[in-house]
């Protein structure tokens, strides 16, 4: 090769490259001011004790590069942040840090806006009590027992910017229920409200959901019943309990209608007699029947017990009673008991068999056969039962025979019936006889 001939080769190469670039740029030209809008901006490095009052606005970006490469770029290719490390409370203007992930041919021309305002305030956490508003209608005959109401949990942690948390005056939820006739649990969402009743949105509640247990019971029915004195033990020999009284003599009870209906009296704890020879006064306490309670707090009760010398004895003959089942026939032998009673003369004189009750009863199942039983006697208050004769009686039970049902009478045969003679047809005709 002749010296100096290489320049022609290099010139050809350069010319070829220039032609290729020209053709390429003609088919895939370089574009400027290509815009990508609404790129979201994140906060980075924010102090955990601070919070931004508003979310940062999105930014736009202008790009330049090859048309084909720019066509593949979208919002997903960018990461925009506001670097807040070391930034304290207050109003700030922070430059946007924008990172592009894409072809090398693309360049960022401009970020709009290049900086964003941000207001940082202290983060505030508080524990608050949950309050309830009620729109509850129990079923007729039932009531909501507010004093037994339960919230699980009863408090929440409210978090947010200090100004927002300061605006919150109550954490509340509304309980809505109709036709309640039993205790029920409901899940509700707690909400934050300001002094005007408007909901405060820029705070968070933890937990936001809670359970309220609504206790429901039947409406209590009130009833006044007498107080009955119970005694145990006995007076001294030769003395009898003649009279008892209690002050106050009645008490008001309450409970469900069914429970109150069966309670006709409230008894005292037994007053124990230990050989008393004269009247005495004792403090008393009530034994409240199961299913009911006192309408008012229990007060002090004073029980007066009077004993008198026994100076009279009387014997009465009383028929022995037995509550016989309908499907048995019963025989008691002997059928009458002699009861010897003693007590003060003013009480004993005038007693009749109607003033005492004598009966027998079978313990366990009632079966056919012979039963040997001991009579039980109930005497008036202040009267003592000295003896009962006989000590035992014989009860004979026999199953009642089942009577057969009578057979129905047959219906009369219509053909067997004879017609009654007609009086007019049977009477003789006088004119016919004369002819």
Task: Tell me the CATH architecture of the largest domain.
Answer: Beta Complex
Strand composition percent: over 45%
According to DSSP, the number of beta strands is 36
Mean pLDDT: 85
Q: What is the CA–CA distance across the termini?
A: 193 Å
Give the structural class. mainly beta
Total of domains = 4
With helices defined by DSSP (H or I, 4 residues minimum), what is the helix count? 7
Unreliable runs: 430-435
Radius of gyration from the alpha-carbon trace, in angstroms: 54 Å
**Anisotropy-based shape:** elongated
CATH class of the largest domain: Mainly Beta
Question: What is the makeup of the main sheet?
Answer: 7 strands, mixed
Helix content: 10-25%
CATH topology of the largest domain: RNA Polymerase Alpha Subunit, Chain A, domain 2
In short:
Helices cover 11% and strands 49% of the residues.
Give the tags.
435 residues, mainly beta, RNA Polymerase Alpha Subunit, Chain A, domain 2, 4 domains, five-stranded mixed sheet, 7 helices, 49% strand, elongated
Describe the overall structure.
The protein is mainly beta. The protein folds into four domains: 6-113, RNA Polymerase Alpha Subunit, Chain A, domain 2, CATH 2.170.120; 123-218, YbbR-like domain (RNA Polymerase Alpha Subunit, Chain A, domain 2); 222-309, RNA Polymerase Alpha Subunit, Chain A, domain 2, CATH 2.170.120.40; 313-399, RNA Polymerase Alpha Subunit, Chain A, domain 2, CATH 2.170.120.30. The chain is built from seven helices and 36 strands. Strands 3, 6, 9, 12, 13, 15 and 16 form a seven-stranded mixed sheet that branches. Strands 26-23-19-22-27 form a five-stranded mixed sheet. Strands 1-4-8 form a three-stranded antiparallel sheet. The protein starts with 5 loop residues before the first helix and ends with a helix. The model is unreliable at 430-435 (pLDDT under 50).
């Amino acid at each position: 090769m002749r010296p100096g001939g290489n320049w022609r080769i290099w010139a050809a190469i350069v010319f070829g490259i220039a032609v290729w670039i020209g053709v390429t740029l003609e088919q895939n030209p370089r574009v400027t001011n290509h815009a990508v809008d609404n790129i979201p901006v994140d906060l980075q490095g924010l102090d955990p004790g601070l919070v931004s009052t508003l979310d940062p606005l999105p930014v736009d970006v202008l790009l330049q590069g090859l048309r084909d490469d720019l066509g593949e770029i979208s919002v997903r290719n960018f990461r925009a942040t506001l670097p807040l490390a070391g930034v304290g409370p207050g109003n700030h203007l922070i430059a946007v840090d924008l990172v592009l992930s894409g072809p090398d041919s693309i360049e960022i021309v401009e970020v709009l806006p290049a900086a964003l305002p941000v207001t940082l305030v202290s983060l505030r956490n508080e524990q608050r009590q949950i309050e309830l508003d009620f729109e509850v209608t129990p079923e007729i005959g039932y009531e909501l027992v507010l004093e037994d109401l339960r919230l699980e949990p009863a408090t929440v942690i409210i978090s947010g910017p200090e100004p927002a948390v300061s605006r919150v005056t109550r954490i509340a939820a509304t309980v809505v229920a109709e036709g309640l006739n039993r205790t029920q649990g409901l899940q509700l969402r707690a909400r934050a409200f300001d002094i005007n009743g408007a909901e405060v949105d820029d705070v968070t509640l933890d937990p936001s959901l809670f359970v309220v247990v609504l206790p429901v019971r039947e409406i209590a029915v009130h009833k006044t019943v007498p107080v009955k004195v119970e005694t145990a033990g006995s007076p001294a020999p030769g003395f009898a309990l003649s009279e008892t009284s209690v002050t106050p003599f009645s008490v008001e009870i309450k409970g469900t209608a069914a429970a109150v209906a069966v309670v006709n009296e409230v008894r005292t704890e037994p007053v124990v007699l230990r050989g008393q020879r004269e009247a005495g006064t004792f403090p008393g306490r009530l034994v409240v029947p199961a299913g009911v309670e006192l309408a008012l707090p229990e007060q002090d009760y004073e029980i007066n017990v009077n004993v008198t010398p026994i100076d009279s004895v009387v014997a009465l003959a009383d028929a022995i009673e037995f509550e016989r089942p309908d499907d048995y026939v019963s025989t008691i032998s002997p059928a009458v008991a002699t009861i010897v009673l003693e007590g003060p003369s003013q009480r004993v004189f005038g007693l009749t068999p109607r003033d005492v009750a004598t009966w027998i009863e079978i313990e366990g199942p009632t079966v056919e056969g012979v039963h040997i039983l001991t009579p039980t006697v109930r005497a008036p208050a202040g009267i003592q039962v000295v003896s009962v004769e006989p000590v035992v009686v014989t009860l004979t039970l026999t199953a009642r025979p089942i009577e057969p049902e009578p057979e129905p009478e047959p219906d009369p045969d219509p053909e067997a019936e004879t017609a009654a003679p007609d009086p007019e047809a049977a009477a003789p005709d006088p004119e016919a006889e004369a002819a």
